[in-house]
Amino acid sequence: MVMASVIQKIIPHYSFARWLLCSGSLQWYRHPTEEDLRLLAGKQRGKSKKDRKYNGHIENKPLTIPKDIDLHLETKSVTERDTIALHYFPEYQWLVDFTAAATVVYVVTEAYCSIMKPSQEMNISVVWCLLVLAFAVKILFSLTTHYFIVEDGGERSVCVTFGFFFFVKAMVILIVTESYLEFGLESGFSNFSESAMQFLEKQGLESRGPVSKLTFKLFLAVLCSLIGAFLTFPGLRLAQMHLDALNLATEKITQTLLHINFLAPLLMVLLWVKPITKDYIMNPPLGKESVPLMSEDTFETMRLWIIILLCALRLAMMRSHLQAYLNLAQKCMDQMKKEAGRISTIDLQKMVARVFYYLCVIALQYVAPLVMVLHTTLLLKTLGNYSWGIYPESNSDTAVENNPLPSSLYSESPSVNGKMKVTVVQITMALGSLKNIFTPLLFRGLLSFLTWWIAACLFSTSLFGLFYHQYLTVA
């Protein structure tokens, strides 16, 4: 409630989302006015020779200018007033500011849990992380639906094609053994099924399990195909911005960071490929004796920290990518000047203004996958019962004991306080039973797979976009 009040009071005055766009580092290109184009074309506002009168009103012919006109676009820094007219700006501001607030809540909660070590309290940061993921998926779904509304474009076919591709890919990944991809899905699902059957037996119900393994994996494959379809155009757009940002970068360090940022999803994917990472770290080939460089718990913690650092790098390179996108206006103008013919002033103005108008859409396509990876990783740490320490203590995955109701509660008179105490204890026992079913072992497998899958989808689509913009577009 405190953070919700902070969001309501402070965000209208101090917004992290507005700061990312309006700090003065982003420059956008203003479209020329009709008067400017008339002066460049050497035309004055016509005398009624080119105006035709029909039924008492004047119909003006659209003004056209040569495509090779000597036009130089004016640049302007992005200000808060400019962002009012941007498409999807409220959604962008809400997602970024809410994610920042949720991250602060998570950090404070983790500090409190590490100091006080509460045993029976619910970790409220889990709710905030789930809300962030829900908002990110909702925004990506909203952006994807626009591609299905457009009738003429081929974006709908691209989304459907990639959705089926990722469905097949997910089915293949789910049958790979744990010796290659170390998610822990098999052990997590087995633990979930056994705990659920024990719970149902205690309730006097006979069951072979809540769901079969085939149904569980089929549901995961459908979910993965939807995530892949949502991340299709963010990945394609990222590839184009990466190429443009590389052309703009002049320093070697900036180019290196851009390359690392583009390969960040691949590095995340390799963290769960056991023969490449864990086997070499846990059992490095150092002569006849194999001395592990770190314990398994330390490796899990290092994996979490690497993902967090790569997410921080992607956020730091956000402005470079957005500026590369804004430069598309000048790039389109340069391409137009190489063509022959004429273009109407309205079409030219739309071509330039469209780039800035969709800035927040591009920002959402850049930020939403980053938010999903980051908060899925935070959920993996919390629900998977991991530690942030480089040398963490051994985690005990023991189930929560089901303490019976104290007999004193039943012996008391049925007063209001007594009934409230009984209700509280019953709710506590119900939550304890759920903890016995949804164990950290299950969350480790499920959230590890989802984190890996989001990174894999983003890298697959961005790699295809890199190939498309580098070779197919040129051809």
Characteristic terms for this protein:
single chain, 475 residues, mainly alpha, two-stranded antiparallel ribbon, two-stranded antiparallel sheet, 19 helices, 5% strand, globular
Q: Please, could you describe this protein's structure?
A:
The protein is mainly alpha-helical and 475 residues long. Helix content is 66%, strand content 5%. The protein is built from 19 helices and 6 strands. The strands form 3 sheets. Strands 1-5 form a two-stranded antiparallel sheet. A hairpin with a 2-residue loop joins strand 2 and strand 3. The longest helix has 33 residues. The two termini are 56 Å apart. About 4% of the residues have low confidence.
At a glance:
This protein is 66% helix and 5% strand. With 475 residues, the protein is mainly α.
Give the SSE layout.
Elements: H1 2-10, H2 16-22, E1 27-30, H3 34-41, E2 51-54, E3 57-60, E4 64-66, E5 74-77, H4 89-116, H5 125-149, H6 155-174, H7 185-202, H8 213-230, H9 232-248, H10 252-270, H11 278-282, H12 296-316, H13 318-326, H14 328-337, E6 342-344, H15 345-357, H16 359-383, H17 407-411, H18 416-437, H19 440-472
Antiparallel strand pairs: 1-5, 2-3, 4-6
Helix pairs in contact: 4-5, 4-16, 5-16, 6-8, 7-19, 9-10, 9-13, 9-16, 9-19, 10-12, 10-19, 12-16, 13-16, 14-15, 16-19
Q: Sketch the topology as an H/E string, one letter per element.
A: HHEHEEEEHHHHHHHHHHHEHHHHH
| Helical amount | 55-70%
Number of strands: 6
Total helices: the number is 19
The span between the termini is 56 Å
Could you name the ranges where pLDDT drops below 50 across 5 or more consecutive residues?
395-414
Which structural class do the helices and strands define? mainly alpha
**Main beta sheet strand tally, sense and closure:** 2 strands, antiparallel
Order of strands, widest sheet? 1-5
The proportion of strand residues reads: under 5%
The rounded Rg comes to 28 Å
* pLDDT averaged over residues: 84
Shape verdict: globular
